[in-house]
Design goal:
This protein is α+β, with helices and mostly antiparallel strands. It has one domain (12-158): Peptide deformylase (Peptide Deformylase, Alpha-Beta Complex). Helix content is 25%, strand content 33%. The strands form two sheets. A five-stranded antiparallel beta sheet has the order 1-2-3-6-7. The longest helix is centred in the first third of the chain and has 14 residues, at 26-39. The protein is globular and about 45 Å long. Removes the formyl group from the N-terminal Met of newly synthesized proteins. Requires at least a dipeptide for an efficient rate of reaction. N-terminal L-methionine is a prerequisite for activity but the enzyme has broad specificity at other positions. It holds the Pfam family Pep_deformylase. The active site is at residue 131. It comes from Agromyces cerinus subsp. cerinus. Keywords: Hydrolase, Iron, Metal-binding, Protein biosynthesis.
């Protein structure tokens, strides 16, 4: 299946909490295929289902040559938050210092219902937190410190895509 268009800031689907995957069926298998196709494009570390217009708890990732997906992820983090440059496909062209934990782990299931776990530091930790935020109806802009958020919102308003 081809990659799907990414929903942009302002689309209500991005601010909606995603529903758990209750049953793996052809629709969910198709969603995973679309997520994997969508994340394989250059410069993409992750794509959440909500970013392609589907409010189910699923995301794909593409970090350090490892491409995969997870359904119904539950996030655990550890370590003191650090400010890390972060961007988002749904907020194109903007990069801001975002507070993120240095370690993250998600536990969820695969298409066969088997339990899976993903964890890491660096870009993987950032991607796991970022994509799980999407499933909770949050954008990285929501995590910015007040002055940084004000600057980011000004940039959004002045962007050519908003």
């Amino acid at each position: 299946m081809p990659e799907r268009p990414i929903r942009l800031f302002g689309d209500p689907v991005l601010k909606t909490v995603s529903a758990p995957v209750e049953q793996v069926d052809d629709r969910v298998r198709g969603l995973v295929a679309d997520l994997l196709d969508s994340v394989r494009l250059p410069g993409r570390a992750g794509v959440a289902a909500s970013q392609i217009g589907v409010n189910l708890r699923a995301f794909s990732y593409n970090v350090d040559g490892e491409v995969g997906y997870i359904l119904n992820p539950e996030l655990e983090v550890s370590g003191e938050q650090e400010l890390i440059d972060e961007g988002c496909l749904s907020v194109p062209g903007l990069w801001h210092k975002t507070p993120r934990h240095p370690f993250a782990r998600v536990r969820g299931i695969d298409l066969d219902g088997n339990e899976i776990e993903l964890s890491g530091t660096g870009l993987m930790a950032q991607a796991l937190q970022h994509e799980t935020d999407h499933l909770d109806g949050l954008l990285y802009l929501d995590r910015l410190e007040k002055a940084e958020r004000r600057l980011a919102m000004k940039e959004v308003r002045e962007s050519d895509w908003f």
